[in-house]
Predict the structure of Methylthioribose-1-phosphate isomerase.
Amino acid sequence: MNIDGIPTRSLRAHPAQRCIDIIDQARLPHVLHWARVSTLDEAAHAIRAMQVRGAPLIGATAAYGLAIALNEQADDARLNAAVDLLWKTRPTAVNLHWALTRMSRLLSELPAEQRCAAAWAEAAAIAEEDVAQNAAIGQHGLGLLRQVTRRHGTTLNIMTHCNAGWLATVDGGTALAPVYAAYDAGLPVHVWVSETRPRNQGLLTAWELAQHGVPHTLIADNAAGILLQQGKVDAVIVGADRIASNGDAANKVGTYLKGLACADNGVPFYVAAPRSTVDFDLPGGQHIPIEERDGDEFRLVHGLDSRGVPSALHQLPAKEAVVNPAFDVTPARLITALITERGVCPASRDGLLGLYPEEAGV
């Protein structure tokens, strides 16, 4: 995707220097800052503190974090300790565990002296696969959006939630990949961007859409329902942090409410994600672990002060009791279809196995 017209990825690997650069997303949309990650602890912190976020990007960052961990020492003790540390950073995004499992399976079979180079190569492969998969998701989703456009015949109004664009992946995005494909194909498209409290990841969506030139409008989370009632939304597309084998999908908290509102108003509700986000080991969404974030994310409001300096203000007393779940689960019955790199399918086990028959034995 583009920043000021320049094609840019959310992660830059420097194998020769044994480090990576990431966009510190905790500082967006006010400041674009590239942060260098050159130690295992820095990689774990970047994931835990949401300097990088979005399931696919978390997975790619974890893969590179493991490669960084093996720079100086690559014996079994170091490998296992690094996997354990990274594994515990975020519980809901299954791409994290998928990437670490893939990496550790490969590396554990190699002698220690070969592991570092192999880790960097495999992390790069995971990153490149993510880019290719997102491009495929975009094209499959574009087919759906063309159908919606034919029915409505005017500007295509898409609503999304959280940020599932290129900032949440290595490049291209998941939920926004079809939007970018539609825009680049010349379809008249407009995006309703919900703010996504309390972390306001919708502001990241607005920032990246603006960078690419896609028309969009920010809305308060609670405005989504009335826009759907008024017929101002043609489709909702969201990403996912984990999809159970029956099609239930965990995404940023507030997604479930949009799914309910779509069902009540006859608006299609799509979930876009690659295979690495599907957890065939989980029979249903009730088994997906829901991350509980620190309450200060809710108590504090971040922005720029009157001098244009980033700052935080208390919107609640410091001791106010709060609950801050990071995700919720939208049941498969509310999902019109899943959009993956292999195509579009119903949100069901049969639908997923139709695209991924190799998982039938899981």
Observations:
- The longest helix spans residues 112-152.
- The chain has two domains: 2-129, 138-359.
